[in-house]
Amino acid sequence: MNIGVFDSGLGGLTILKALLKELPQYNYIYLGDNARVPYGNRSPEIIYQFTKEAIDFLFKKNCQLIIIACNASTSTSLRKIQQEYLPKFHPNRKVLGVIKPVTEELGDSKFQRIGVIGTKAMVNSEAFIREIKKILPKAKIFQQACPLLVPYIEDSGRNRKVLQLILEEYLKGLRKKNIDSLLLACTHYEIVKKEIENIVGPKVKVITEGYIVAKKLKDYLKKHMEIEEKLKKKKKVSYFFTDPNQDNKKLMELFLNG
Ligand code: DGL
To answer: Which amino acids does the record list as binding substrate (predicted)?
Structure first.
């Protein structure tokens, strides 16, 4: 059986890239809902509906385990999927997200003033605030929604000036908060990490999710041999998009190898 990786668009490829590096032996099926990206400006109810459809698609493609490589979906939908949907319809399969592994990793850090940027849906859910507070009760968390970033990135936006303006605008509030770390809580943002680092400066540790999610999945599979044993190890990777006619080859290349 396969490992499924799902995102609203191309952002989840940053997670897949890390998985392929850390756990190259498995078979992966990637699904990007590029026909409906961005999710982040939509209601939690509709994001849940889209997420459920994606999960059903990946289960039909013989996925034993699915990683929701999307913070908007994880923060609005994962709990309901795990607690209500899976027990009823797919009791033997697993769906994991990006928030738990990332907060566990933050729990091992000494960060005290953590900035979190992501989509509106992620920010409104307050999922990271809740989860980080559980393990770092004294930490101060400052969130900022960046609703233009995902459409900009998906539209192959590499116009430096525009990107610089958008980022400066979104980050100016956080820069005044004297943050020691900045979590990129949207899987799309990894490809503009350098530009973000240049704005926040060397004193702020910029954290991306790919490597953390891959490392934690490795630990998870070691602990759950009953799942690991079911996974095919043929190093096959397949990609599916809900709008297969969109030409996203160049951008995919940037996400996976850039
Ligand atoms: N990559 C998704 C995330 O991590 C983007 C969500 C969106 O489509 O707005 O949240």
So the answer is: 7-8, 39-40, 187-188
